[in-house]
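Replying to the earlier thread about multi-chain prediction with a worked example.

Input:
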Amino acid sequence: MTEIIFEFLGRIGFTHPVHPAFTHIPMGMVIGAVVFRLASFLPRLRMLAKTGYHCVILALLGVGPTIFTGYLDWQHRYGGAWELLIVVKMVLAAVLTVLLLFTAIKDDPENPGLDRRTGIYLLMILVAVGLGFSGGELQYG
Ligand code: HEM
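Result:
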């Protein structure tokens, strides 16, 4: 399957790794979610908690294609080799997905507080940084 996809992409002139194009969705949305959540504690900006929540939903929708394309690039460009960085990425991808799902189900953006739910927003950005750094190490060494 992997080679069929890359042969097709090669035929239409797309020879880059596919994963980086998709990583912007969860990475950008997690950063946005945290910025809006923290800004919602400023006077008269409470409504930004809802914007942050919407970023969580889009990040969650983007995680599936991001993980799938990460798998494709791993198979195509790294021969499916079980490197430590790949295992780290798989674990962090699973953790991020669980945190996004938990927030999507349990968060109450109408009543944001400096509580555990906001703590999970901060945890999500740490996991995203870990995913980006380990990805950068794979790509740029
Ligand atoms: C939500 C989950 C994930 C996020 C947000 C994410 C994010 C990233 C980022 C930001 C990069 C650097 C891209 C660049 O600018 O060059 C990257 C690279 C990479 N990631 Fe991920 N990643 C995720 C999951 C995975 C998974 C599950 C795998 C493998 C099974 C994977 C494999 C790779 C590989 C091989 C690279 C090196 C560049 C490439 O060949 O595409 N990623 N990732």
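The helical segments are 2-11, 19-39, 48-78, 84-106, 116-140.

Feel free to reuse this layout for your own posts.
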